[in-house]
Design a protein that fits this description.
By secondary structure, this protein is α/β, with parallel strands linked by helices. It is 38% helix and 16% strand. The protein has a single domain, classed as Arginase, Chain A (3-Layer(aba) Sandwich), CATH 3.40.800. Helix 4 packs across helix 5, helix 5 crosses helix 6 and helix 6 packs parallel to helix 7.
Amino acid sequence: MLTAPVVLGGDHYIAYPSVKGFCEGMKKRLGRKPKVGLIHIDSHLDAYNENDTWGKYYHGSPSRRISELDSVDMHNMVYVGINGTVGVEPYEYLIGNGATIYTIEDVNKDGPTKIIKKAAAIAGNDTDVIYCTIDIDVVDQAYSIGTGSYIYGGITSVQLLEMASALSEENIGAIDIVEVSPPLDPSGNTSRLAATTLLNFLKPRLFEYR
């Protein structure tokens, strides 16, 4: 059964160095350049190239920087739950280079499990392994207020948990959950949701059942 590094954040920028480090680790493990797919579960694309204040390395650019890694082919990059402001240039960059985007409407139409199956098939096509990054702001603010860029009309907590369970059955080599800010949610609900999401993904790996 696959083991999987787990990264908790924090700013979504950490996904970029996490994926970069994961690719380097896989290279040492395989003895060659790995092929790594990406599933990006988020309300936003996070694919801006540069910001006047923060430059090229900030929470709005991690998937753009990931797309530039030698081990990542953009045809294996899949975005799930997109619902927020995406920006014309990032959208055209991703679509024009072969990435796949599933919006909140797609999730509601097909259901969380089917969307994850579709995403994993694309991200896993001719790759060694998939990295999954989850921004908690993919969840509607009614369920996840403890984040800096919360969204109205996002997925529900139940849908996120279903996604995590579906991901546990796929070839996920590493996962992160980011943008959880406990001070913004004194109730602790957002932190608990993030923890439960992670547990849903890890259960088969921890307890060896399907």
